[in-house]
Design brief:
By secondary structure, the protein is of the alpha+beta class. The chain is 42% helix and 23% strand. A five-stranded antiparallel β-sheet has the order 2-1-5-4-3, with helices on both faces. The termini are far apart.
Length: 166
């Protein structure tokens, strides 16, 4: 499970989208591929955000990559895109997009959307690193993982107790 790119875009209902903030982790690609892969990720994020209507969420697959898109719309006209591999679960991806947009709208004034180069939002890199583990984004998934680990421990103890009795 891997997140390759995370983007926040200004997505007006008509016209093209503008990238406001983005982060990528292309360390799994060779040095010589990274430039073209980053261009692909930027193009992919922009294209799927333009084709997602306001207030909608969707997932789009392209080869081995999946882009999960949340176009919040509204007054801010913001859209968030996560590009990951096919193994990354859907629910944590959309949870991450919602958290990302909430944090972005809280920390970046809407007046700065007109000049994207002046926007500083380093938290997007933190989100990219932290949520490589999908259990960080989804509490239900985290609880399920803890239950599975507890179940394994209980089964091991029951087997040992049975062996001790015999």
């Amino acid at each position: 499970m891997k997140i390759f790119a995370l983007s926040v875009l200004l997505a007006p209902p008509e016209g093209s989208t503008t990238s406001l903030s983005s982060a990528s982790d292309l360390s799994s690609f060779s040095f010589f591929q990274r430039g073209s892969i980053e261009e692909f990720m930027t193009f992919f994020a922009k294209t799927v955000s333009e084709r997602t209507t306001q207030g909608q969420r969707q997932s789009v697959q392209e080869n081995n990559y999946i882009a999960h898109v949340y176009n919040r719309g509204g007054a801010e006209q913001l859209c968030a895109v996560i590009i990951c591999d096919q193994e990354y679960p859907v629910r944590p991806a959309f949870s991450l997009l919602t958290k990302l947009l909430d944090d972005f709208t809280a920390k970046v004034p809407q007046s700065s959307f007109s000049s994207p180069s002046s926007i500083s939002f380093p938290e997007i890199q933190t989100y990219l690193q932290k949520y490589q583990d999908p259990t960080q984004a989804d509490t239900i998934m985290r609880v399920q993982q803890e239950l599975d680990e507890t179940k394994i421990v209980l089964i091991e103890r029951a087997v040992r107790a049975k062996q001790d009795v015999l």
